[in-house]
Amino acid sequence: MIHLKSERELEIMARGGRVLALTHEHLRPLVHPGISTQELDEAAEAFIRSHAGATPAFKGLYGFPGATCISVNEEIVHGIPSRKRILKGGDIVKLDVGVKLEGYFTDASITVPVGTVTPEIERLIDTTRRSLDAGIAAAVVGNHIGDIGAAIWSVVGPAGYTVADDLVGHYVGTKPHGDPQVPNKGKPKRGMKLLPGLTIAIEPMVNIGGSATRTLSDKWTIVTADGSPSAHFEHTVAITEAGPRVLTRAA
Ligand code: MG
Fold first, then answer.
1. How far, in Å, from the CA of 94 to the mean position of ligand 1?
2. What is the whole-number distance in angstroms between the Cα of residue 109 and the centre of ligand 1?
3. What residue ranges do the domains of the chain occupy?
4. CATH superfamily of 7-246
5. C-alpha to C-alpha distance for 6 and 60, rounded to whole angstroms
6. DSSP for 146-175?
7. What's the 232 CA to ligand 1 centre distance in angstroms?
8. What is the pTM of this model?
9. In the list 108, 128, 195, 229, which could disulfide-bond 248, CB 3.0-4.6 Å?
């Protein structure tokens, strides 16, 4: 059964989501050539824990070793922070962060360029961000889950990119992941109807090349099968009578 949130519960999630958004703002200026993904992870964890009651939700989740998932270039999601992974100019890094506060989870990701990136990479990042905005705009009462994916794909497809196979958004709130799944490609008016109080993570994962993926031998990191770069933006969003409410915002 899907848990629909009361206004009081949404306020708790918005407080956790604010910590998450501020964590992204804290990390963004730290991203530069020469920093390791481990250093970014440690900075994220310390920042989250500096807020009373907040913890990094991914730490130990299903056995994940990091506090956050940090994925570089062709790594789509679930990259393990490492002291050996040093960022260099021209890379893109995806900072996927979960926060748990007072029993409620929020989840959001940003893609950040390292130094100067090529115009093609800039276009990938911009397209992915715009596809998330389109998906959020479709997250309204009366629409269906499929309308969100259709809206995301209406931005990604015409740009000539693909969305990663089998990687989807999801219910988030009383647990870090659950049903319904929120695919990044969908048919309008298909899937579950969106109800007030439903909270979901909308998260397009967009590849310059093909949609196929594979998992590295570390059993976590999912990469594009063809090695092409991938971008990822994600927000936790509540469906409300007043329209989509983004819970992972700083203000
Ligand atoms: Mg996430």
1. 10
2. 6
3. 7-246
4. Creatinase/methionine aminopeptidase superfamily (3.90.230.10)
5. 29
6. HHHHHHHHHHHTTTT-EEPTT--EEE-SSS
7. 9
8. 0.98
9. 108
